[in-house]
């Protein structure tokens, strides 16, 4: 427009939070709660994916608190890498019991090194 100085326009884009996933670049993080029994003895869990399906994840090893597993290619599209997708990172939140009975404590002491 005549008489006006051209200026830059700045856009600020904020990601909308998701109830199940947290974005980390092209990767997404999902936190799954496990009981102490599941973490020590193993279990199978259903992990939700972006397309609304569930992917079965078999856990056969001891899971330590805050440990993770990666589901390759189940994250967001990465335009820098063509048609490749990021990963879905499953983080485990191990829930410990608030208390144990004396009998339970004795069983654990006898079972663990």
Provide the residue-averaged pLDDT: 91
Strand-residue proportion? 25-35%
Which term fits the overall shape?
A: elongated
Can you summarize the main beta sheet? 4 strands, mixed
* Poorly predicted spans: none
- So, CATH architecture? Sandwich
Rg, Cα atoms, Å: 22 Å
Element-by-element helix/strand order: EEHEEEEH
How far apart are the first and last residues' alpha carbons, in Å? Answer: 80 Å
Instruction: Indicate the CATH topology.
Output: HSP40/DNAj peptide-binding domain
Helix content: 10-25%
Strand order of the largest sheet: 1-2-6-5
- Considering the protein shown, what is the CATH homologous superfamily? Urease metallochaperone UreE, N-terminal domain
What's the total count of β strands? 6
- The domain count comes to 1
Supply the helix-strand structural class. alpha+beta
Number of helices: 2
By CATH reckoning, the class would read: Mainly Beta
In short:
This protein has 113 residues and is α+β, with helices and mostly antiparallel strands.
Task: Write up this protein.
- The protein is an alpha+beta fold.
- Strand 3 (43-48) and strand 4 (54-59) form a beta hairpin.
- It has one domain: Sandwich (HSP40/DNAj peptide-binding domain).
- The chain has helices at residues 36-41, 102-111; strands spanning 21-24, 27-35, 43-48, 54-59, 68-71, 88-95.
- 8% of the residues are buried.
- The strands form two sheets. The chain has a four-stranded mixed sheet with strand order 1-2-6-5. A two-stranded antiparallel ribbon has the order 3-4.
